[in-house]
Design goal:
A two-stranded antiparallel ribbon has the order 1-2. It has a single domain, classed as Orthogonal Bundle (ABC transporter involved in vitamin B12 uptake, BtuC), CATH 1.10.3470. The protein has 317 residues and is mostly helical. Helix content is 77%, strand content 1%.
Length: 317
């Protein structure tokens, strides 16, 4: 049984502490922390695909599917339940991921990325054009759902949503790390290093990548549902290519070698954007760009890699 590294344990402890302490000290940050955790779940899927050397520029498709699964349920079937949403949304994304994955896993590198982008843009176009069903660019407002059949006031609901998202993030992080450390995860990495040798061993690279792709779709749908409930709206922007770029940005920022990198990158991205947008509304993209350039130049393995190097140097003293 794979064990969590000491660094991973420390990061988990920090995440739990931050999710409890930050909202208590800064109640206005409750939704921000929820968004960090939810987007971190989505980025876990990007990290899985990056193990195989494949960059998905269309991962927002599954994020959008999760979001609109929640929105359509609320619009056409009445206010739903949060526990129902976090089951239905990832299931819908997983089913679509299995169908799309059959086609895209045949391709590698830029072709893989562009084909994902094409599917994502088809979904975005449908969400924009089918105005009578989707409200077009205005999106669909999502009413505050119940939790296990019980209704809660807004403030209480925010905290409950945060802690449910935290629990899901911890489970997803642990499961993905176990997956990456498993034989199947090592096969996924072999696609990047030597796919031909993997095939010679009698292992289908397509099947290995398809499994990873379906898992990433599930995580995208789950994160999309949580973000939609937190923001109480789903818009076509959720499926746009810039959203996919945002997830890839976060993955590189946090580091792709460890599941914890998804949440480290999401925290850095959202906090910098939140503070920069408040102080420099017209320049926050520039600030994020500078942060990414610095990370790539001085810490190519991301924030987690930087922490590992720091811990290693401390251990040598």
């Amino acid at each position: 049984m794979a064990r969590l590294s000491n660094l991973h344990r420390v990061l988990i402890a920090i995440a739990i502490a931050a999710s409890i302490i930050v909202p208590a000290l800064l109640p206005s940050w409750t939704t921000l922390v929820t968004l960090i955790l939810a987007k971190g779940i989505v980025v876990l899927g990007i990290i899985i695909l990056l193990q195989a050397g494949q960059v998905s520029f269309g991962h927002a498709m599954f994020f959008g599917l999760g979001a609109y699964s929640v929105a359509f349920w609320g619009k056409y079937l009445g206010t739903g339940d949060l526990l129902l949403y976090i089951v239905i949304a990832p299931v819908v994304a997983t089913l679509v991921g299995a169908l799309v994955g059959v086609f895209v896993v045949r391709y590698r590198e830029i072709f893989f990325g562009m084909l994902n982008l094409a599917f994502s843009m088809v979904l975005w176009s449908l969400l924009e054009k089918l105005y009578h069903f989707t409200n077009g660019a205005d999106g669909i407002r999502v009413a505050r759902p119940t939790i296990a059949g019980m209704a809660f006031p807004p403030e209480t609901f925010q905290y409950l949503l945060l802690y449910i998202t935290l629990a899901l993030a911890l489970v997803a992080s642990f499961a993905v790390q176990r997956y990456l450390d498993s034989p199947l995860g090592h096969m996924l990495k072999a696609i990047k290093t030597n796919e031909t040798r993997l095939e010679y061993l009698g292992v289908s690279a397509r099947k290995v990548l398809l499994i990873g792709y379906i898992i990433s779709a599930f995580l995208g749908g789950l994160g999309g549902a949580l973000v939609t409930v937190a923001q109480q709206i789903a818009t076509p922007e959720f499926a746009f290519w810039t959203k996919s770029g945002e997830f890839v940005f976060i993955a590189i920022l946090g580091g792709t070698a460890n599941a914890a990198g998804a949440f480290a990158g999401a925290a850095m991205f959202e906090i910098v954007r939140f503070l920069a947008a408040a102080k420099l509304a017209n320049a926050w993209q520039l600030i994020l760009g500078v942060v990414l350039i610095v990370i790539i130049m001085f810490a190519p393995s991301g924030l987690i890699g930087l922490l590992k190097r720091g811990a290693a140097s401390e251990g040598k003293r």
